[in-house]
Design a protein that fits this description.
single chain; about 450 residues; alpha/beta; Rossmann fold; Dihydrodipicolinate Reductase, domain 2; 2 domains; 12 helices; 15 strands; about 30% helix
């Protein structure tokens, strides 16, 4: 990528510790991890968070070739643990321990790695706790709840030298890897613009009302790093995405993460110089949805390059085709790429190459999962063993994630802003007030 990995890490860690830490743990040879886990050793793993993303892990964990053993299924909701155990009972021979509290899982020295699929506000704190406990981490998107947490998770990775794979699984798609390499080698000339998009038909959500937490839910642990407040109806079951900023990151963190990562990868850019957004809640105006449901964002980079985002959470008019994807424009042609493969065109719009993927990775369905996730998880396992290098190392993931945070911040303050394209920091003081969030006392990760 444009700026090398080591320089990015130096910049990121300055924001967390106040001092530059030289070098990059992830830049080390993959063989360094084999000193911890032998190349032929079985890996003991735990899944933290057993909601809609759980189905994505059935195949990579249960396949014999992965050579992993599932030791724990952990979730703050009793019914989630029981459903997950019932499903895995049909797939694996051993019986995982069902656990409510992630801290107890991390205390077990037999656990080598975790899959962190908790709600967004738990992603960075959970990953940092795991690394501090000596575990490798497969960290689902968004890898951070706010920009400050992006700095934190990189600093923890660097300090504890753990394998941290961000769960933007399209980075492991053979077709995406192929076309991005071709773009970088000049297949469409100079790539100057990427348009990333997502559409869905999410319906009305209940207006939150105060009530007792559902039976079996540990509401205190669900909140974890977030400030304590009373339970509101239907918060825990996915709608936390739309009920304010304590837990979720809106559709930008929930889905734009994937396509913006492909766009940034294709254009070979890191931090933008300017961010603008148009956003609002336009569908079902009287329901409980508190975030925007429509977002257009523009990220302007040096050398006259731009990424445009168009997100429609509750209006499924298919502007670009395919529900989600990325279009890359170049001086000599263009490319459409999504989870189903890519199509390359010349300047006259003539199809030059059509690479249909054999992938069955889900698009806009809740939870997702498929063979891209399997490849991504297997890459995680093999990197721990020293056999491969990560396809989505966390220090690259946090740069893509930062684009979603910029858009959310601009939406919340109602204006665009300039960015220092060497550090990623925002010049606008009002915007920088949202660089980090408030934590429940004692829960903020400390490096």
């Amino acid at each position: 990528m444009g700026t090398d990995r080591r320089n990015f890490l130096k910049k990121a860690v300055v924001g967390v510790t106040g001092a530059t830490i030289g070098g990059s743990a992830m830049a080390n040879s993959a063989k360094s991890y084999s000193k911890i886990i032998g190349a032929n050793d079985k890996l003991n793993v735990a899944i933290i968070g057993l909601g809609r993303r759980l189905g994505a892990y059935y195949e990579p964990i249960s396949r014999k070739e992965s050579n992993v053993e599932l030791l724990y299924l952990c979730d703050v909701m009793k019914s989630q643990r029981e459903k997950a155990a019932s499903k895995f009972a049909k797939l694996i021979k051993n019986k995982p321990i069902l656990e409510n509290d992630v801290r107890k899982v991390l205390e077990d020295p037999k656990v080598d790695a975790i899959f962190n699929a908790t709600p967004d506000h738990w992603h960075t704190p959970g990953a940092c706790m795991a690394m501090e406990a000596g575990k490798h981490v497969y960290l689902e998107k968004p890898c951070s709840h706010n920009p400050h947490e992006g700095e934190l998770v990189v600093a923890f990775q660097q300090k504890y030298n753990k394998v941290v794979q961000m769960g933007n699984q399209q980075r492991s798609s053979p077709e995406s890897i192929e076309i991005i390499k071709a773009i970088h080698n000049g297949a469409i000339g100079k790539a100057y613009r990427a348009v990333a998009f997502y559409t869905n038909d999410r319906g009305e959500v209940p207006v939150p009302k105060k009530q007792a937490p559902p039976e079996g839910l540990d509401w205190d642990l669900f909140q974890g790093p977030a400030p304590r407040k009373d339970y509101m109806h239907d918060t825990w079951d996915y709608n936390w995405h739309w009920y304010g900023w304590d837990y979720g990151t809106a559709e930008m963190g929930n889905n734009a993460t994937h396509e913006l990562d492909i766009a940034r990868w294709a254009l070979d850019v890191e931090y933008p110089m300017h961010v603008d957004v148009f956003s609002g809640k336009f569908q079902y105006p009287n329901d409980g949805w508190e975030m925007y449901d429509t977002m257009e964002a523009s990220f302007h980079f040096d050398d006259n390059r731009v990424i445009n985002w168009e997100g429609q959470s509750r209006n499924k008019y298919d502007t670009f085709g395919g529900g989600r994807g990325t279009i890359i424009y170049g001086s000599e042609g263009s490319v459409f790429v999504n989870r189903g493969g890519y199509r390359q065109y010349d300047l006259k719009g003539k199809l030059v190459k059509d690479s249909k993927s054999a992938s069955n990775e889900a698009g806009t369905a809740l939870g997702g999962g498929g063979d891209m996730t399997t490849k991504h998880a297997v890459n995680f396992f093999e990197t721990i063993r020293g056999k491969e290098k990560l396809t989505s190392p966390i220090e690259q993931g946090v740069v893509s994630q930062l684009l979603t945070h910029y858009a959310n911040i601009a939406s919340r303050i109602g204006k665009g802003f300039d960015v220092d394209d060497t550090t990623g920091r925002i010049f606008d003081r009002e915007a920088m007030q949202l660089w980090k969030r408030e934590y429940e006392p004692g829960w903020e990760p400390k490096i």
